[in-house]
Amino acid sequence: MTTHHRSKGTVLVTGGAGYIGSHTAKALHGNGFKPVVLDHLSSRFKEAVLWGEFAHGDIRDTRALRETMEHHGVEAVIHFASLIEVGRSVARPGLFYDTNVGGTGPLLNAMGGAGVG
Description:
- The chain contains five helices and four strands.
- The protein is of the alpha/beta class.
- It has a four-stranded parallel β-sheet with strand order 3-2-1-4, with helices on both faces.
- α2 packs across α5.
- The longest helix is centred in the N-terminal third of the chain and has 12 residues, at 19-30.
- The model has no long low-confidence stretch (mean pLDDT 89).
């Protein structure tokens, strides 16, 4: 007899190919949620995405984020997407600010457009 477990909901994990994001996706999966991992893979590897579907994307792209959320039926978002390399952050602080701080606005806009609270 096969038992089908109903998902508790779909959760988008931004930065989900990173260390913390991948462990969060694993915990979500283990607790009955359906994780969707969004990452642009600039310093991570798709092979780290073992729990949930993978969506390649950048948190600064509102349209792509919204399409991803709508396509997967995302109900919640856990946001870990960021650039983390200290040396590069000193050499290119504007890029890090644009991604790590500025990326939150497009993410929130996409959530609103997709009806994700």
